[in-house]
Amino acid sequence: MQADSQVVELRSLEEMIRIRLFEQTLDRMFARGLIRGTTHLAIGQEAVAVGAAKALADQDLVFSTYRGHHHNLARGLDMTSAFAEVLGRRDGCCGGIGGSMHLTDVSKGLMGSYAIVGGHIPLAAGAAWAAKHRGEDVVTACFFGDGTTTIGAFHEALNLAAVWSLPLVLVCENNLYSEYTPIGKVSPVADPAAGRASAYGLRPIVVDGNDVSAVYEIVRAARDMAARGEGPVLIEAKTYRLSGHSRSDPGAYRPEGELEAWKNRDPIRLLAQALGLSEVDVSGMTERIKQEVDGAMERALESPEPEPSALFKHVYGGATA
Amino acid sequence: MTTISYREAIAESIARAMRRDQSVVLLGEDVGAAGGAFKTTVGLFEEFGAERVLDTPISEQAIVGAAIGAALRGLRPIAEIMFADFMGTCWDGLANHAAKLRYMSAGALGVPMVLRTHGGAGFGFGSQHSQTWENLAMAIPGLKVVMPASPSDHIGLFQSAIDDPDPVVFVEHKALFGMKDELPPEGHLIPLGQARTVRTGEDVTIVAAGAMVAVAEKAAEVLATGSGMGADVIDLRTLWPLDMEAVSRSLSKTRRIVMVDESGSVCGWSAEVAARLVENSFDLLAGPIRRVVPPHTPVPFAASLERDWLPSVSETVEAARSLRASFQSA
Questions:
Q1: Is there a contact between A141 and A52 (Cβ–Cβ < 8 Å)?
Q2: What is the pLDDT of residues A113-127, one digit of tens each?
Q3: Closest-CA residue to A251 (of A27, A17, A22)
Q4: Is A318 close to B97, i.e. CB distance below 8 A?
Q5: In terms of CA atoms, which chain B residue is nearest residue A129?
């Protein structure tokens, strides 16, 4: 993170494009009936993942959610194994057993992606506690959405993290919707995460989630605070998802013009502008990166289905009668 | 001979584990400074300190979740849930997280934790403080479930539970707290999934777990002296993995089986044992399977009603006698 900031920012742009292309590829594959189940895309939310990923240390941990491909990719999850997992193939990061919502790669500190809203936050607190207990320089980052702030586990975990002063950075990606419902209808406070921070003795922090540099700065500061033993940090990143809640959601609940307005604040467009790059420059980058992404998908498609015996593996790690 | 009560055995079990394995930690409500709501963790805070014995807020989801998260990072946490009924608030952590993470991650994640809880009826604690719920836990793939029926079994089984790479639900029945036993030696270890034959006989198999083992034993005594019937009494000790071998071995001798099961008349553990016997040991059965179970109601408060609710010695004796009276063994 000492590199020239222009180079770092260019890499951020490439990373966001890479993630965008991954998500768009999944979108097309679903539309063509090549992927089963459902998936939750983070198109438009790339800056939160990329900015945060760059701010964390190599040894730090990440707990993500069912809308978490971007978190996992930004922290180095191999793209072919990510595609293969969503396809349910043997070479998926979880052998095809987890699927889109459960991307995991412990070697990269990616401690799982979780599909129970808020259910992973106490886990992240526990992992943070383990690091503190052992005196390790390891910070745990936990991502979740605005809709998570209304579930019990969020409150219990935040309370515990604050009272035990845990090295935990909590990043709320507020994309303004709790599934199909505008967050304002379900949260009594305007900033669903930051507006609740003081209830846990924490500072309210709001950041423009579509400004990758701003995200980087704030997560970096939070990481440093947590690492110094100053307790958890709760960050609310304002962003927007340009796709529906899941593949089956056409987003008809959005008010007129909202989508357009946020498209103008597309994080990729914002960074390109900040770097003085033209649309042609960005198209060129995109074309180049698209080849990498397409190659990863092709390799994933070649991966076979899991063996039938995989159904029975890993239920238990120890002996059973 | 040193004796130890079940209540003391709980603290002894935890202490033995924490002495031999630095990664073992204990968290729960009032487990530390107060020595536990039931005084089952006395002395641990003094011996191991605040770093390893943690008093938590009233936050069952956070207690279980934090235990899972710490286990993911290689610690071996013991999460105490004060009353088994309170597991209601943390079924998500247990069932959707602890039980499933190893599977969903194809083995990358593991949750070597023990969830200890005090359960069981008979004390006028009312409907929301009287369950055991071992039957619900055993129905969830990925969990292991243990219910020790004696102090020395608690100690032996607990060490295995702590060493186990999987999440273990460890149910301690309140009715047993005063039970006395010989203090087992250091290193006392009982593997999970192994039932114990408490008493032998030729005429009927009585299977029980937890506080119902004493009911089964007393019933066996009454049957021996009153009816000349000898009973094999089997204490399952572990509900999952289930030791069906021990049950069917006994059944091959007696041909008759009664089960004493506090966990319920609908989907209690005895229903699972019964299903497996019918599937795999049908030829061994000389007659129907009898389950002595509570009625399908929550636990009432009034003393006489709570007594009626609990499976009893007389019901167990009657069940065994009814099998002998109605059927001749082949």
A1: yes
A2: 999 999 999 999 999
A3: A27
A4: no
A5: B70
Give the position of tokens 């943390």. B90
pLDDT digits (tens, 9 = 90+) for B284-293: 999 999 999 9
Mean pLDDT of chain A: 94
Chain B partners within 8 Å of A317 (Cβ): 102, 107, 110, 112, 165-166
B71 neighbourhood in chain A, CB within 8 Å:
126
Residue B135, sorted as left (phi over 0), alpha (psi -120 to 50) or beta, turns out to be alpha
Q: Are B223 and B320 in contact (CB under 8 A)?
A: yes
Contact A156 B107 (CB under 8 A): no
A1 pLDDT above the threshold of 80: no
Query: Chain A residue with minimal CA distance to B61?
Result: A153
In this predicted structure, the answer to whether residue A290 has a pLDDT above a threshold of 50 is yes
Contact flag A319-B61 (C-beta cutoff 8 Å)? no
Q: Does the pLDDT value for residue A2 go beyond 50?
A: no
Rounded to 5 degrees, what are φ and ψ at A225?
Answer: -60, -50
Closest CB from A98, A123, A131 relative to B68 = A123
To the nearest whole angstrom, how far is the Cα of A315 from the nearest Cα of chain B?
A: 5
Nearest to B102 among A153, A310, A314 (CB): A314
What is the structure's pLDDT at A252?
79
Q: What is the pLDDT of residues A49-108, one digit of tens each?
A: 999 999 999 999 999 999 999 999 999 999 999 999 999 999 999 999 999 999 999 999
Q: Do A130 and B73 touch (CB under 8 A)?
A: yes
Q: B29 vs A127, A133, A164, A175, B55, CA distance in Å? A: 19, 19, 14, 36, 5
Distance CA A64, CA A70 (A): 9
Which residues of B are designated catalytic?
A: 60, 129
The Cα B7–Cα B26 span in angstroms is 16
**A156 and B59 in contact by Cβ < 8 A?**
yes
Instruction: Look up tokens 């061994």; give the residue.
Output: B284
CB within 8 Å of A269: residues ≥ 6 apart: A282
Give chain A's contact residues with B (Cβ, < 8 Å). Answer: 61, 94-95, 97-98, 102, 104-106, 111-112, 114, 116, 119-131, 133, 152-153, 156-157, 159-160, 163, 310, 313-321
Residue A223, pLDDT > 50, answer: yes
Asked if this assembly's ipTM is beyond 0.90, the reply is yes
How many CB atoms sit inside 10 A of residue A214's CB?
A: 15
Distance CA A190, CA B299 (A): 44
